[in-house]
Amino acid sequence: MSADDDTDLPGGWEAAAAEYVLGLLSEDEAQGFEARMREDPDLEQDVAAWRDHFATLTDPVAAQAPPPRVWGRIESDLFKPARKPIWRQLLPYGVGAVLGATLAWAVFVSGVLVPQEVDFRAALEPVEGTLALTARFDAQSGVLAVDLAQGDVPADRALELWLIAGEGVAPVSLGLLDASGGAVRSLRPLLAERVPGATLAVSEEPPGGSPTGAPTGPVRAAGQLIAT
Asked: Transmembrane residues, as ranges (predicted)?
């Protein structure tokens, strides 16, 4: 990271990177940190390194597969259809069918009050081996969910998820997949804005993840996030 340490955050920018990963910065501090990270590529590497470090703290915890109903509730909350605007809920109780029809026509034509949500999906196809995964990104919540579709998770290695926002752009680590080959990540705005057209890739790494902040092992699967 740059030696320039012009910040009021305790410990300087490197310490701020750790607090950023843990979500300890206030909204204003996080925005200032993200602005700095746009100017300092090394700071982004610090964020990736801290994310990998904190991920290793859960290694001693024995993996437990949650009951299917738990994942069902999580997916329902993350990817449920948008709630109807309030005017559509109250419309049947309006005083006049003609007024309701006119209002509905005006809104439909103008696009006012129509939710403008965009979801992205990716099929991560095998690159080396048989590993395949599916991914979904909800643009409104910023949540990315990855699930194993086929293949096995190696017992003595780690599978690390990467976001590649374009040709020639350094991959950004999104952490390790769990023992079942899945992951749920809440992306901060700085990363979420890179999702359209980006590629997700999974590399095989040493236990604990890449030691360099970049993929070191073979890429097992990859796929592009496409709007649906």
From this structure: 90-114
